[in-house]
Amino acid sequence: MAHTQEPSGPSLSSLLRVAPGERPSLAWRDPGGLPAGPRDKAAGTAATAALADRLASLQERLYAQATAGDRRRLLLVLQGMDTSGKGGTVKHVSGMFDPSGCRVKAFKAPTPEELAHPFLWRVARALPLPGEIGLFDRSHYEDVLIARVRGLVPRKVVARRYDRINRFEQALVDDGVTVVKVFLHISWEEQRARLLRRLDDPTKRWKFDPRDLDERALWPAYQEAYERALHRCSTEAAPWFVVPADRKWYRDWAVSTLLAEHLEAIGPRYPAADFDVDECRARLISR
Amino acid sequence: MAHTQEPSGPSLSSLLRVAPGERPSLAWRDPGGLPAGPRDKAAGTAATAALADRLASLQERLYAQATAGDRRRLLLVLQGMDTSGKGGTVKHVSGMFDPSGCRVKAFKAPTPEELAHPFLWRVARALPLPGEIGLFDRSHYEDVLIARVRGLVPRKVVARRYDRINRFEQALVDDGVTVVKVFLHISWEEQRARLLRRLDDPTKRWKFDPRDLDERALWPAYQEAYERALHRCSTEAAPWFVVPADRKWYRDWAVSTLLAEHLEAIGPRYPAADFDVDECRARLISR
């Protein structure tokens, strides 16, 4: 796969992956790092643009083969602190794909109806269908992140959820879903800079919520909750990837590359016609 | 509004609108025509590109003002014969917007569950929320188009649906929805050319369904059903627009322009902060 500037090197997926069983240290992974690929913004933007056609073609083939009964599909799960770029990543990624083959879902605070169901209920309802690419801005991981940090449910309940998540994701994989889980890793300083930009620009102020500052005050607890979730739920079937996200151009390149590698691994193909092409052509031309 | 190349001319909306009460003749409206705006592909592509930033900004403001309680939103309904470019238009339009503020829905043949409900049920479930832009690829109009042409329900039942649709759309408008209904008008010859292209290109063949030829054989009945729907359901509250769609570049320019005109009429604005900006800034900088 020629997915980086060093075609013979290891895949980006293998570099960014949290190995099953690993206890990842987020403090040790640099949110501003460039672990592989382009070294500056100009090269990064160009490399990402160069991926767009390939990704569009892979998506079209994935969608096309589903029309012939193939069940495979892809789910991109995006998690990260406020301002880490989940929405921006969804925008970038979905801009490369045909929207009719994308299923985008942003998970907000659960509604009373959602709270009345098991925590995976609302997630199951938003999954991509065969041939589609699902894009989750937040996910069932909120139920072991904010739920843990804020004590929204007892610790014991949270503790049971990791295994339930792993079984849920294993079932998805068994059903033909390629699950790509990405933690957008930003630094404490970069979050401050981004929040200040929202405050200082009147056209961005509506994105700011003073409660974001309360969440920010719990930064260390969130980092610990993320480390725990990544440790418990990075599995062979559905591993986690940590993407350095302080630089938006690098984040977009890295997520695009992860998607390209996973779609290449599926290797989708246009299906053969299951009808008589010549007969249809004759019918069309006849009048 | 400077939405065409002749800023002082009438709006495109007024030119393409089916006047309430009018019995439109589709044979009389040229699918290859250029009723206003750019005269060739190069100019059209440039004019459409020039609209993209304005549309993105309008959408962001629409979304932003909804966070402060404004209920307004927009619904684009796309109808047209097979290959008329409904999917292509959704792709073009949604490519200009932030996907988190778009709600895209392609209506297929109704499921058994959908058939067990009133015909507007599945439509009501797919409507945009305040601040969102809804994009419908097909809609409740299928229930007076294919339903009529194919005799899926008795004529008498179809006849009652026009008024139900008008009342439904009036209620949407009363609730703050700007409804923009677009008929993508292509010619019999252009449909043949597009179907042939699908047949002749192995990477497009999966989009072809031999049953499309059966639908094509009913072309006159469909044109008549469209004329009837446009006549009965082009209202002051929610008029229909006929967009010449034989040229994709013109179609994209026309739909973009219709959207821009309708969004300008809403005139969305960034809301003022409902919190103490200085206090938040001080809190952010303090540590």
TrEMBL record, chains A, B:
Residues 1-42 are annotated as: Disordered. Residues 1-14 have a biased composition (Polar residues). Gene3D superfamilies: P-loop containing nucleotide triphosphate hydrolases. It comes from the Bacteria. The keyword RNA-binding does not apply. Residues 40-265 form the Polyphosphate kinase-2-related domain. InterPro entries: P-loop_NTPase, PPK2-rel_1, PPK2-related. GO terms for molecular function: kinase activity. Keywords: Kinase, Transferase. This is Polyphosphate kinase 2 family protein.
